[in-house]
Amino acid sequence: MIRWQPHRPPWASELVTALMTVLLLGGCGPNLTAPAANPSGPPVPSVPGAVPRPDHIVVVVFENKAYQQVIGSAAAPYLTALAHSGANFTDAHGERHPSQPNYVALLSGSTQGVTNDSCPQQLGNQPNLARQLLERGLSFAGYSEDLPGVGFTGCFSPDGRYARKHNPWVDFANIPTSANLPLSALPTDLAALPTLAIVIPNLCDDMHDCPVASGDAWAQHHLPAYLDWARTHHSLLIVTFDEDNGTAANHIPTLFVGPMVRPGDVPTRIDHYTILRTIEDMYQLAPLGAAAATPPITGIWTP
To answer: How many CB atoms lie within 10 A of CB 156?
Structure first.
């Protein structure tokens, strides 16, 4: 608080004027839709052996639901049981609102200046996780439900069930169009999965346009086959959300399930940069952007 003094230094009037201008422009309260700054800080060094190296990782991203709307909810019995079978992060958060910046952050360690859901975004050759994996001789693919065809760059499918704003890899020129795939292209022989697959349900199945129960039913239909296979093939499932239902806390469900994961609630605060950093450390990739200042997830892994 500024305390008025009878004898002010010469610059005090200018300071008061500036503060009054901020208040008149609406600076007196939080703006829940305003972009937050990316985390910053000194780089956190990688520790060899601190995280496992799965043969495959599948990341599934749902939409716009807060932690308490899913985990423990009667509308989400499958996802709740899945959370209890793995590491259930009770303090996970999105970066901001609305959706699109969170997807970009998860893939690249930065929101890349994206602050809204406008389409199309053209992010050029900015570094990203897919490009890192490919340059290391590993593999990546993104699978979007109801994507009209391989490499499709439109903002929506004709039926409106696919939205490019939830598909960040199409925005980067250095990710091959062959990595932009419909969900129907997911291999039935799971050994043919890429090193990292990111799966995006359509606008109903991801809970964006439909209730939690719709997303839970989708998960129960699509995930058990991979989980059964992953248990004997040293592979990992990550389920997360882009953002919550619009609160300042942005508290989202996130869970890790696999043979290398010790089940239980995990109170450690994490976000999309933490997930990115953990995957990068798993494959000995240099952490990108804000992920460099974020420690990877440890303490959940079996010996």
So the answer is: 15
Let me know: does 172 contact 34? Beta carbons within 8 Å: no
Is 11 contained in some domain?
Answer: no
Closest residue by Cα to residue 122 from 166, 172, 162: 172
**pLDDT value for 153:** 98
Residue 271, strand partner residues: 93
* Whole-number pLDDT of residue 301: 98
What contacts 189, CB < 8 A, 6 or more positions away? none
Give Cα separations from 147 to 22, 33, 56, 155 (angstroms). 45, 28, 23, 10
Q: Assign 3-state DSSP to the chain and report helix, strand, coil percentages, each to 5.
A: 30, 15, 55
What is the pLDDT at residue 202?
Answer: 98
Is residue 274 domain-resident?
yes
* Distance from C-alpha of 295 to C-alpha of 273, rounded to nearest angstrom: 9
**What pLDDT is stored for residue 193 in this prediction?**
98
For the question of whether the overall pTM of this predicted structure is more than 0.85, the answer is yes
Residues of the chain with pLDDT under 50: 1-38
Give me the DSSP letters along 134-174: HHTT--EEEEETT--STT---SB-TTS--BGGG-GGGG-TT
**Amino acid letter, 269:** R
Query: In this structure, is residue 298 part of a structural domain?
Result: no
pLDDT at 39: 57
What is the pLDDT, as a whole number, of residue 40? 63
Structure letter (DSSP) for residue 270: E
Q: 189: domain CATH number? A: 3.40.720.10
Euclidean distance between CA atoms 249 and 137, whole angstroms:
38
How far is residue 222's CA from residue 40's CA, in Å, rounded to a whole number? 37
* Counted domains in the chain: 1
Q: Which domain holds residue 99?
A: 54-293
Residue 301 lies in a domain: no
